[in-house]
Amino acid sequence: MNTVIKPTIACQQVDSYRLDPSFIHSYAPNVGDVGLFEVLSPGKHRLIQNPQGANTYIYEGDHILAVFGNRYATKVFEGVVPVEPQTVYQMLGRGGVIGSVRTAHSKIEEPTLLRQIAYAVDDKGQVLNTLYLRNQGSRFDPNRTFPGQVILSVGTTMDSGKTTSAAYLAGGLKRAGFRVAYIKLTGTLFLKDTPFVLDRGADMAIDFSMFGYPSTYCCELDELLDLHQSLLDATAPARPDYILIEIADGLLQRETHMLLSDPGFMRTVDEVLFSCSDSLGALGGLQVLAKLGITPFALSGLLTVSPLLVEETRAFVREPIFTIEELLEGPAVQLLLQRQQSRSMELRRA
To answer: What are the residues facing 140 on neighbouring strands?
Structure first.
């Protein structure tokens, strides 16, 4: 095939392949399967990210190498890998995640439409699948201990400030002389969060795509726990004193709630940082967390851009609230160190 192919970042671990169009109408795709697609009608996504993370425009008639996956985004699309082969697919995310849109936000433009041309196969004719293609994973062990403290960044909803809070806390810890690793455990592949946290001061920033996942929506709990363990193990070269782990979307999202409800997962977490968009969301979110037996060490997020929202929230909660400047400049780090020292003293007494 002499057509120029534009690969997406979802195919970053695909080194070699050949194209086989013979079974695109008979084979039902799986999450992680790699295919070649023709752009029929550009819509919401007129750009893709290439394997180097740069943005590339796509036009009608272009051919892209992309990966089947699911997506959950309350402000954009919900999309899934169809159980049967389709004539037309949709682009679910700029990172090259392909599936069928199930629901969409009413203010979002129609999705980019694609027609599958072929599957990418290996030298044995097997469909290439990105899951654990290049990096071997680990089995989850809730009793594993890590030299670094694990801080979980969660939020009320999509775009509540989870990544920004984690990034500025990473910067604050780095300024205090600590080594910091950041993990994006769940979400849909798009190279934005990890570079941001690196730029803010983290020594390492990795996400689920390291193990070939185009997204984590619809993963089962055991699969997520193994991915969690794999990513934790992958931070070892950075020798982190602190590991910041972000879970995408909000507390009520399926995978987020599954993880927060799992005692084994929470046993690996030392502290929780809770990001909120507004004061009422903060109160409701704290109630949800309390029912799960979780008390965050602090609140932050989008609500802190408004002094009035902070004032409203402080009148009803006991947890400290930090702006991103306070996460960066020391007060949050001091609190973490105090809490860590208190836990160490309690363990010695026991």
So the answer is: none
Domains of the chain (ranges; CATH) run: 5-121 (no CATH), 149-349 (3.40.50.300)
At 59-71, the pLDDT tens digits run: 999 999 999 999 9
Q: Assess contact for 204 and 238: CB atoms under 8 A.
A: yes
What pLDDT is recorded for position 338?
93
CA distance 49 to 158: 21
The beta strands (E) that lie in the chain are given as 5-7, 18-20, 34-41, 47-49, 55-57, 63-68, 71-72, 77-80, 89-93, 97-104, 113-121, 149-155, 180-184, 204-207, 242-246, 271-275, 298-300
First-last CA distance in the chain:
69
Query: Residue 348 pLDDT > 90, yes or no?
Result: no
Contact 260, 136 (CB under 8 A): no
Report d(CA 162, CA 143) in Å as an integer. 27
Task: Give the H or E element holding residue 183.
Answer: strand 180-184
Q: Tell me how far apart the alpha carbons of residues 108 and 36 are, in angstroms, rounded to a whole number.
A: 26
State how far the alpha carbon of 330 is from the alpha carbons of 171, 182, 323, 327, in Å: 10, 19, 11, 6
Helices (H) and strands (E) in the chain, counts: 9, 17
Contact partners, residue 346, CB within 8 Å, separation at least 6: none
The answer to whether the CB of 340 falls within 8 A of the CB of 148 is: no
Look at strands 77-80 and 113-121 and give their pairing.
Answer: unpaired
- pTM score: 0.95
Residue 216 β-bridge partners: none
Cβ atoms of 190 and 67 within 8 Å: the answer is: no
Amino acid at residue number 140: F
| Pair type for strands 55-57 and 77-80 | unpaired
Q: What is the dihedral of CA 189, 194, 196, 202, to 10 degrees?
A: 170
Joined tokens for residue 25: 């109408």
